[in-house]
């Protein structure tokens, strides 16, 4: 009999578990059968590509990488527009909203995240979490006269939405808390670079402690947002509103079944990605992606790391371990290591940010004393076209001088540098080693002395 694998959720996390297992199903005696259940009607959608569709770079439907039929043709019971209402761990089954019960040998919980927002009866107020949200936003932009926009959220979703509106000539206000943009990824001095650049493009930022106190409309459609109260009260015109914060793990199913939920609100797993119940691992039940809690690789504290790259790495671990358990080959077993959160994002207007490891604030909260060095330099010889500048900040443990964080803002070479520093953090490289390491050089491609060397040197000179 084939082993039955049931995956609850069809975002990048669930789909990558499925893809990895499909590639190895012929290695399993008796085979494997897969059932994937998701609420949306689409197949595999690249949600990270949706903000760029709103900029007009391509149509939204191009972000659907594989349609449901792609998986159906491979023998997958790929169920769209459906929902699991109960996990029956005692019977190794899941119950669907239709009442159907499906048994499993292995269960993968990939329920993702949701936004916790207050309900409003006004149209024109949107969340931005999936393809359906993107289509609603695009429809509003195309069918209504949108001159002003209001965005709640200073993270990547909020800033990329703001960039999309700015490119359409829409006067946009972004509300976020103090003191700066992208606080989970960038120190305030690095976030300020992005803020200054985006303000020059016409965006307005409000970074204080005021919250939305009212959303007002006319004829059922939003017209303004009120923030603050009494003397701090301000009414801001808004023909469209995006709520791009308050993302929380979608854990209702797991919680109702007794699976352990961590202090961050995510599902607790062991390093094999097995869920835990009563602090005991369930060896046939896994969780992956935005619904899970991870361990930070620097502070060793629990955190959420709701990135597609995290989900893909976890998916590989789960596929390895399911295959190892079925075949009895312990050499296939793998584990998910503590997370160092490499991230990169195109913020708009040609500006890119990247980060890996901890911010100075996160290090301080973990009791880690730091030193840091910052430098700005052209990425290639000044006489070559495309010689744009890059600002880099490197953060080191003050006692060991080991690299624990890297942040970059510029127009090019950001993604490859983030990956470089992820390896450097894993390897425990010090400021002196980064300063003294040999680097490649060609004036059309790189500086003779890279900005990395300057930033590491500045950190050492700060002690």
Describe this structure in words.
The protein is α/β, with parallel strands linked by helices. It has three domains: 3-113 and 248-332, FAD/NAD(P)-binding domain; 117-245, 3-Layer(bba) Sandwich (FAD/NAD(P)-binding domain), CATH 3.50.50.60; 343-461, 2-Layer Sandwich (Enolase-like, domain 1), CATH 3.30.390.30. Helix content is 26%, strand content 30%. It contains twelve helices and 28 strands. It has a six-stranded mixed beta sheet. Strand 16 and strand 17 form a beta hairpin. Helix 1 runs parallel beside helix 8 (308-327). The longest helix is centred in the last third of the chain and has 20 residues, at 308-327. The relative contact order is 0.11.
Provide tags for this entry.
463 residues, alpha/beta, FAD/NAD(P)-binding domain, five-stranded parallel sheet, 12 helices, globular
The number of helical elements comes to: 12
Q: Helicity range of the residues?
A: 25-40%
Compute the gyration radius: what is it? 24 Å
Any low-confidence stretches, pLDDT <50, length ≥5? none
Mean pLDDT metric: 95
CATH homologous superfamily heading of the largest domain: FAD/NAD(P)-binding domain
User: Main beta sheet, described?
Assistant: 6 strands, mixed
CATH architecture of the largest domain: 3-Layer(bba) Sandwich
- Structural class category: alpha/beta
The CATH topology assignment of the largest domain is FAD/NAD(P)-binding domain
Strand order of the largest sheet: 5-2-1-9-21-20
- Look at the structure and give the CATH class of the largest domain: Alpha Beta
Tell me the strand percentage band.
25-35%
Distance between the termini: 65 Å
Total count of domains: 3
Question: Could you state the oligomeric state of the chains shown?
Answer: single chain
Quick one: how many beta strands? Answer: 28
């Amino acid at each position: 009999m084939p082993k039955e694998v049931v995956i609850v959720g069809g975002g990048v996390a669930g789909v990558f578990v499925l893809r990895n297992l499909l590639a190895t199903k012929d290695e399993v005696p008796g085979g494997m059968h897969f059932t994937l259940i998701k609420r949306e009607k689409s197949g595999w959608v690249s949600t990270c590509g949706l903000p760029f569709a709103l900029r007009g770079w391509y149509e939204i439907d191009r972000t659907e990488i594989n349609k449901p039929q792609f998986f159906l043709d491979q023998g997958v019971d790929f169920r769209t527009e459906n929902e699991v209402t109960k996990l029956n761990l005692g019977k190794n089954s899941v119950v669907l909203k239709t009442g159907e019960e499906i048994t499993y040998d292995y269960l993968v919980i990939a329920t993702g995240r949701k936004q916790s927002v207050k309900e409003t009866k006004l149209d024109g107020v949107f969340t931005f979490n999936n393809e359906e949200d993107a289509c609603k936003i695009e429809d509003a932009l195309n069918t209504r006269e949108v001159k002003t926009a209001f965005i709640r959220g200073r993270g990547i979703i909020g800033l990329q939405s703001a960039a999309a509106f700015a490119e359409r000539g829409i006067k946009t206000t972004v509300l976020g808390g103090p003191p700066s943009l992208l606080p989970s990824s960038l120190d305030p001095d690095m976030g300020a670079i992005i803020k200054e650049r985006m303000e020059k493009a016409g965006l307005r930022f409000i970074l204080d402690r005021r919250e939305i106190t009212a959303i007002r409309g006319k004829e059922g459609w939003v017209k303004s947002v009120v923030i603050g109260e009494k003397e701090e009260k301000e009414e801001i015109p808004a023909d469209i509103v995006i709520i791009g914060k308050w993302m929380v793990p979608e854990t209702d199913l797991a919680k109702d079944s007794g699976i352990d939920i961590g202090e961050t609100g995510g599902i607790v797993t062991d390093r094999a990605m097995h869920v835990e119940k009563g602090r005991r691992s369930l060896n046939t039940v896994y969780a992956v992606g935005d619904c899970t809690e991870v361990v930070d690789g620097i502070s060793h504290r629990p955190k959420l790391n709701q990135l597609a790259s995290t989900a893909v790495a976890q998916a590989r671990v789960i596929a390895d371990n399911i295959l190892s358990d079925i075949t009895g080959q312990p050499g296939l077993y793998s584990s998910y290591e503590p997370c160092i959160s490499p991230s990169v994002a195109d913020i708009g207007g040609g500006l890119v940010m990247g980060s890996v490891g901890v911010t100075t604030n996160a290090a301080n909260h973990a009791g880690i004393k730091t030193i840091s060095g910052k430098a700005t330099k052209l990425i290639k010889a000044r006489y070559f076209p495309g010689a744009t500048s890059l600002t880099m900040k490197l953060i080191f443990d003050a006692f060991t001088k080991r690299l624990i964080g890297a942040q970059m803002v510029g127009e090019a070479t950001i993604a490859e540098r983030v990956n470089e520093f992820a390896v450097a953090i894993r390897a425990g490289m010090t400021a002196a080693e980064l300063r003294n390491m040999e680097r490649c050089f060609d004036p059309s491609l790189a500086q003779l002395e890279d900005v990395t060397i300057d930033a590491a040197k500045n950190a050492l000179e700060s002690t």
